[in-house]
Specification:
heterodimer; A: flat; B: Rossmann fold; 31% helix; binds adenosine-5'-triphosphate; binds magnesium ion
Chain lengths: 279, 247
Amino acid sequence: MSVLTPAKPETRPGMPEPARRRRRLGPGRPIPFGAAIGPLLLLALWTVGSATGWIDSRTLSAPWTVVTTAGDLIADGRLQDNLAVSARRAALGLVIGTVIGVVLAVVSGLSRWGEAVVDGPVQIKRGIPALALVPLLILWLGIGEQMKVTTITLGVLVPVYIHTHNGLRGIDSRYVELGESLRLRPSVFLRRIVLPGALPGFLLGMRFAVVAAWLALVVVEQINSTSGIGYMMDLAREYGQTDVIIVGLVLYGILGLLSDGAVRLVQRRALSWRRTLAD
Amino acid sequence: MATHAGGLTAAPPRTVRVERLVRGFGDRTVLHGLDLEIADGEFVALLGRSGSGKSTLLRALAGLDRDVAGSGTVLVPENSSVVFQDARLLPWQRVLPNVVLGLRGPDADARGRAALAEVGLAGRERAWPNELSGGEQQRVALARSLVTEPELLLADEPFGALDALTRIRMHGLLRELCARHRPAVLLVTHDVDEAIALADRVLLIDGGRIAVDQSIELPAPRSHRQPAFLGYRESLLEALGVQEAGR
Ligand SMILES: Nc1ncnc2c1ncn2[C@@H]1O[C@H](COP(=O)(O)OP(=O)(O)OP(=O)(O)O)[C@@H](O)[C@H]1O
Ligand SMILES: [Mg+2]
């Protein structure tokens, strides 16, 4: 090297800043509050429809009626009480279902015998909707909390199991080989390679699981229940109170959205090492 | 490199002993009764055509071929470690946890930091593997292999994916590290120059056996300009069946 050219400045005036360049493939940069746009659009449609009389208030109460009804329900404490009961059921079912789902996935993912024993029953359960199991569970467990939480647990453990198991089986065999060459103890292998490797699958399963928890909740609360949002809605049906039903529905929607958002937040934090199409 | 295993010395201590090793896939035998010995602290390079069974032999020594049919004796130290062609870092762990993955004990992190400093990556402990260049990743992998102070280092084309300049740097680093820690080394490579530059002994695998066993006696620093270097090179290339252009 005999001729050295002076270093050129990285960015010249008139050139687009490097950070602003957009990837040509892939969905592009994230939109701020992008997740809120779809629901807000739906809300706008509903408002306009009710204001113009295009939506009959007996079919679907107007948004402002729903808001005042919600206000009334909060004022007399019914909303909070029922929400607390529902949230407790959902949370309990979610936690128990997640733990069982993960344990089953690990057992069936790491051993052929485990898979032979566990996988079939879970796949069978997968084909049976929660609603179909309720009559049997009522006979076994009565109509109390135990039956409700059990139904939710069963709904939750299936997606957790399926996606965790899938993630676990998808771990690159090269990492297994690495673990073997380092002579890792099984517990270290599980903690450092298997579980983190299955984490993306597990978190995807959790996104399905939170929705499954709320769905199962709806089912159990509309059958023989004396508390909870579902019960509140069922009661409203008997009295023909559309607005209360809508409040319940909106509540379910918000809860579903919030819990999914929470899982996605965890997902982004926990998987920050990943570079994907969306980044 | 002082401890050459010359032909006449009375049996020096052996780190590796392989006898009548047979390995095959299906009805195709890749290794036909291969014998191999590596002395303590000896640096052995293994050459051979593509498909000649270099990786098969190395995986047998590493104990990674339990599902492969075969027979024979393989005696290797319990404490040996492998460097793969890809750095094979866990993408979900930062650099330091990757280095100390196989370590136990309270001083693991300190030893990991020291190993990283040795490969010139002090200060990168908290980086994610995908934030590192290919050469840096391979240096982390080297640190991970050496932090356990192995008696035997098995490396399968560890520099195969690196550019020529980075390769030369890595040669210097590897030589330095091996001089300090003195593990026995089996380095699989495609590159005749790499083999001559680094090894005490170059083996050539052909027909499922060791076909050439060539001690390399060159004063350090070894360079492509030494006439003896060129001599080794020519004979090894000839054994590999390569005709060099312009000769
Ligand atoms: N898992 C496997 N299943 C079937 N055949 C295999 C397997 N691994 C290796 N072989 C065969 O064994 C032979 C030796 O393979 P090996 O990987 O040891 O070659 P190599 O010398 O390392 O080649 P290269 O220099 O290209 O890496 C090849 O013909 C290959 O096709
Ligand atoms: Mg190979």
